[in-house]
Amino acid sequence: MALLPIITAPDKRLEIVSTPVEAVTDEVRDQLDSMLETMYAAPGIGLAAIQVGIPKRMLVIDISRENEEKQPLFIVNPEITWVSDEDSVYEEGCLSLPEQYADVARPKEVKVRYLDRDGESRELHATGLLATCLQHEMDHLDGILFVDHLSALKRNMILRRLLKQKRLAVAG
Ligand code: ZN
After folding, report:
1. How far is ligand 1, taken at its centre, from the CA of residue 123, in Å?
2. What is the DSSP annotation of 109-165?
């Protein structure tokens, strides 16, 4: 396992549509483990492979709190099979958009079919924060960021701020 550098916006790689994982091999498991370690270190509650430059349809999530037992989810080739009519709004952030937050409305509940770390097919009925987190991470697999759900005005404001941060970091 290794800590992987996280790509931050604006960056064209974050717009890539990731390709399905053909088989959950040891190499894929190593990548998932490194992604989880990277996410915990950041710290964050979700990370999609493209955020560390791997254009594959896989992600890791752990929404457990700091004082709780860890509950990592390894999700490969996820497909949404059902969404609720009702939406919920969460203030979202993203490891690729450091220190930027905004309210995003998404379906309150989703059912997702995916392969786990052993390559077994599973289905998950997610509600609350987990439902939002899953949809946020799955968006990354299609090159979509949470700011793409905002008005153009808000989106551009956040992206300009990130560009400025990057320029300052380079200058520093
Ligand atoms: Zn994100």
Report:
1. 22
2. EEEEEEE-TTS-EEEEEEEHHHHHHHHHHHHHHTT--GGGGS-HHHHHHHHHHHHHH
Domains identified in the chain and CATH numbers = 12-171 (3.90.45.10)
Is the four-CA dihedral 147, 151, 152, 155 of positive or negative sign?
negative
Distance of CA 49 from the midpoint of ligand 1 (Å): 10
Q: Is the pTM of this model over 0.90?
A: yes
Of 123, 164, 162, 124, the closest CA to residue 146 belongs to 162
> Measured in angstroms, how far is the CA atom of residue 141 from the centroid of ligand 1?
10
As given in the structure block, the two tokens for residue 70 are: 């860890």
Per-residue pLDDT of the chain (172 residues), as tens digits, is 789 999 999 999 999 999 999 999 999 999 999 999 999 999 999 999 999 999 999 999 999 998 899 999 999 999 999 999 999 999 999 999 999 999 999 999 999 999 999 999 999 999 999 999 999 999 999 999 999 999 999 999 999 999 998 888 888 7
| Nearest-angstrom CA–CA distance, 86 and 132 | 13
Q: Is 123 in the active site?
A: no
